[in-house]
Amino acid sequence: MRTIVTGLIGQYAFGGVTWDYIQYALGFRKLGHDVWYLEDTGAWAYDPVKMEPSADCSHNTAYLARVMEEFGMGDRWLYRNGADGSWHGAVRDAADAARVLASADVLANVSGACWLGEETAAIPVKLFLDGDPMFTHIGLAADPESEYAKRVRAHERHFSFGLNIGAADCVVPVAGIDWRPTVQPVALEYWSGDAVAGGHVAEGAWTTVMNWASYAPKEFEGRKYGQKDIEFEKFVDLPSLTRERFVLAMGQGVGQKRPTGMLESKGWTIIEPDRHLPNFTTYQEFLAASKGEWSIAKNGYVQSRSGWFSCRSACYLAAGKPVVVQDTGWSAHLPAGDGVVAFTTLEEAAAGVERVAGDYAAHSRAARVFAERHFEAGKVCAELVA
What we know:
The chain is of the alpha/beta class. Helix content is 34%, strand content 19%. The radius of gyration is 20 Å and the shape is globular.
């Protein structure tokens, strides 16, 4: 079976983004599929140095080539530059790319990264995999006749990280689509939890990787659904309530509005993601050096009770790192407890961190077991095509 996995590895050449997408390819490969990676967003390449769109995709394709080679897929990737339509990777030209796509049985459209063209639309089984519940769904419900909505509905199956969609306490609009729950696949063999050289900035600290605000709030039925900045303000005093240390790799966010001085005055150590974990290797080292993850979720995930569980948290767990993370409704579907602690209030967050620190070895073992049970890449990907 030939499976095409789409993504944004080249478009956004950052460490966490790489792991989000490559692990789908690794999961399907583990099932014995002939896996190709496709990047065809229709957009211009993003220049991470200038932080702006660029017609030149050389930086993006160079990074993508390195990633694909690292994971044994050097002859199994395609990238189309939205600026000029040129194809890059393991194909010579558009006709060559069309032949590869025409032979596919399954399209795993991760986060809807691929805008269906003639060839991809013709693939028999198309999976739409949503990683941004509530925000994706607002877009669908707000204008069901939009080109975006039509493209989403053109897929045969729809999955979402919103584990709680359809529950009585969840307000995520289904927009006439049968949403099936799913989680991030994790290629466990790449997350052994190997020790990182001493002196790492994350060593012994509770960490996470986040943006202060990824994009502007969205409104639905008279209510605004915002970003992590809104939720973080509820927990800004956490360092004063525990003996633990916190190091956050935090992007400035839309409008460069991160209140760095205020956060540091409250006891948080803030580092720049593009400097400290610019690629998939340094991202993995950051997680491996950490004591565990403490993190909040986007306000939209929390307020809607979407049931979102972080792809990043799944990787921490696979590395044997406990997570203490905000509950979005996920605890009704994944078992919170040893290794995975849910919180909704500041007091619960502090108690959760102290609880894990008090029996760290046991929680670390439980973290890896949790990942093996719920996020193993082959198992997750098999459920997508069952």
